[in-house]
Amino acid sequence: MAAAVLPLPTTPRTLGACRPIARREDLTVLRGGARDDRALHLIDLENLCGAGSTTAEDAARVLAAYADAVKIGPTDCFHIGVAHHMAAAVMPVLCVFPGRLHVRSGRDGAETALLEDIDLAHISTRFSRLVIASADRTFAETADEAHRLGMTVWQVTGRGSLSRELSRATDRRMRLRLPRPPAEVLASRARRLPTRGPVPALSPA
Prior knowledge:
This protein has 9 helices and 7 strands, in the order βαβααβαβααβαβαβα. By secondary structure, it is of the alpha/beta class.
């Protein structure tokens, strides 16, 4: 199924009453940089939330944490990737977060939706930084290519499992220290874990 790209309004509004939590030392790192630089933000919302589905309230907390922790310039651009069922659940939040929503279902759907329309050769002429908001190794090749084109690459991670391959390909990294996910997220994560076989009985000594 082809990815859908939906334009989102750019009116700034509060994303949630609960303010985010981030490590103070990480804030210092990611708020540095030139005053006039521009960044393109690729936000794998499923990975930040830690599962393929979540609630609107949890998505609001995650996006608010991201907005507070990362240096965001007035001319930055945002691309947010989710699966179809997650887009429907969090649409009230996404409709007030500036950027473009890329929707695609299936394995690695959100990552594919984000990357398939990205032209780094063109982007590198307009942006000095690429911010990858994901821990998925799918973005490692993109990070390497951005480096080759002279861009600085930052990584922001949330609840998703960390990919060392992607981390090695980025210049600066931070992890959002988010509150415990809701039950729906935990249940979805549990369904993705491999099933363990029976534990063999020990032979008597």
